[in-house]
Design goal:
Oligomer: single chain
Enzyme class: transferase
Strand order of the largest sheet: 1-5-6-4-3-2
Protein name: non-specific serine/threonine protein kinase
Distance between the termini: 108 Å
Shape: elongated
Number of helices: 16
Helix content: 55-70%
EC number: 2.7.11.1
Number of domains: 3
GO molecular function: ATP binding; protein serine/threonine kinase activity
Radius of gyration: 41 Å
Pfam families: MCAfunc, PK_Tyr_Ser-Thr
Length: 425
């Protein structure tokens, strides 16, 4: 019987977690039947019962694997070895034997029992420390998770941060004004048709006057434009993209941002006013008139003027690609996104679809292909690959329009989309 009990205890000692509780139960039962050192055995049984209560408390902590952690599993394994030794000793106190042998064994067992009892008392002192470590770990994790959640900005928080940086720049001349909705209403006569300059695919442009200066007010209007864009590109995303890119751009051939408005869910930007409108409104119409024999148009759009417009767009693109803080790919370069001032100097505008190339990369790929079909490079339209070449292709199409005096209209795109040179010639 004794050898079977020792064997059983050894087997249980190989187990972890809740199986240790079975070993404790066996110690308590054996202590009740002890023939020698019964008082010591019962005291030991009370100690291991306390150990059992603490083990159960640790295991009831949902989702916490205290037993498996290196800093706690090692002492718990040593505790199990001590329990195994305690069970062997208590079992030996149950066994019968001759009186002299029992007398000698009883003395020896008593010393061993007290030694095991002392070890178990030390382990009992470790349990509060283990619980404290685990509780502290849980608290740290909760705090860290909360801090991470706080650091993960919501889209609206990121937008607010960008807008605040625009109005709080150290250099007063580099700051952008935050206009109220009432200011824009007053500047455009309540966004009247008389003030409207253009209805584009992404926005409506109005002419207004703020602080005595003529300005262009761009009001995003995806819901009424019919423009099909990826779902991830909401008015908020387009607005945030433009105000994140434009303030960093300072070049004579890039449209200048003056301010913005976000009241009443408005996503409106304010720019310097361009007297000659956009490329479509002024330049292309004038070219057609010139080729039709209109003398006034020919005098305005002579070849030096056309060359200056081509050169200005090229310089603006070179700045975006090579000399701005980061490499910017416009992705929607076309005549309606080129504005002309009073001297017919071109300015690249409308950066809501632009992308910034990551540092050290020459090209990137996107699943959200946007832009105008007739002016977008084939590799971008078909594979989503964009680079500086994407804008260069669009620029080339516009140059062909300026030189040839022909419009790259939808019918022409359908007929000559594979051979631009055939269309031009």
């Amino acid at each position: 019987m004794a050898s079977e009990a020792v064997s059983m205890a050894a087997n249980i000692a190989q187990l972890t977690g809740v199986d240790a509780l079975g070993l404790i139960t066996m110690i308590v039962e054996a202590a009740k039947a002890a023939r020698r050192n019964k008082r010591t055995c019962l005291e030991l049984a009370r100690l291991v019962e306390q150990v059992g209560d603490l083990l159960r408390a640790l295991q009831e902590q949902t989702g916490v694997t205290v037993m498996e952690r290196p800093e706690t599993s090692a002492p718990l394994r040593e505790l199990q070895e001590t329990l195994r030794r305690a069970h062997e000793l208590v079992e030996s106190c149950r066994r019968r034997g001759s009186y002299p042998r029992r007398l000698f064994a009883g003395k020896e067992q008593g010393e061993s029992l007290r030694e095991v009892q002392s070890k178990i008392s030390i382990y009992l002192q470790l349990f509060p420390i283990i619980c404290h470590i685990d509780g502290t770990r849980l608290l740290v994790r909760v705090i860290a998770d909360g801090a991470a959640a706080a650091r993960s900005p919501r889209p609206e928080d990121e937008e607010d941060e960008v807008l605040m940086s625009l109005t709080n720049r150290p250099n007063p001349q580099a700051r952008f004004e935050k206009f109220s909705y009432s200011q824009l209403v007053h500047a455009t006569n309540d966004f009247s048709l008389d003030s409207q300059l253009e209805q584009s695919t992404l926005a409506t442009l109005y002419k207004g006057k703020l602080h005595g200066n003529d300005v262009t007010i761009k009001r995003l209007s995806l819901l009424t434009s019919g423009q099909r864009l990826p779902e991830c590109m909401s008015e908020n995303e387009l607005f945030k993209n433009e105000i994140k890119i434009l303030p960093e751009l300072q070049h004579k051939n890039v449209a200048k941002l003056v301010g913005f408005c976000t009241e009443r869910r408005e996503r409106t930007t304010v720019y310097e006013f361009m007297q000659n409108g956009n490329f479509v409104d002024e330049l292309i119409v004038a070219i057609l008139q010139a080729f039709a024999g209109a003398a006034t148009a020919r005098s305005i759009l002579d070849w030096p003027t056309r060359f200056r417009i081509i050169e200005g767009i090229a310089q603006g693109l070179a700045y975006l690609h090579n000399y701005s803080r980061v490499c910017i790919i416009h992705r929607d370069l076309k005549p309606s996104n080129i504005l002309l001032d009073s001297d017919m100097n071109p300015k690249i505008s409308n950066f809501e679809l632009a992308e910034m190339l990551s540092s050290g990369t020459d090209e990137q790929k996107t699943d959200n292909v946007v832009g105008s079909i007739g002016f977008s490079a084939p590799e971008y339209m078909h594979k989503g690959i964009f680079s500086v070449k994407t804008d260069v292709y669009s620029f080339g199409v516009m140059v062909l329009e300026i030189i040839s005096g022909k419009r790259w209209t939808q019918p022409n795109q359908t007929r000559f989309h594979k051979d631009l040179l055939t269309w031009v010639c």
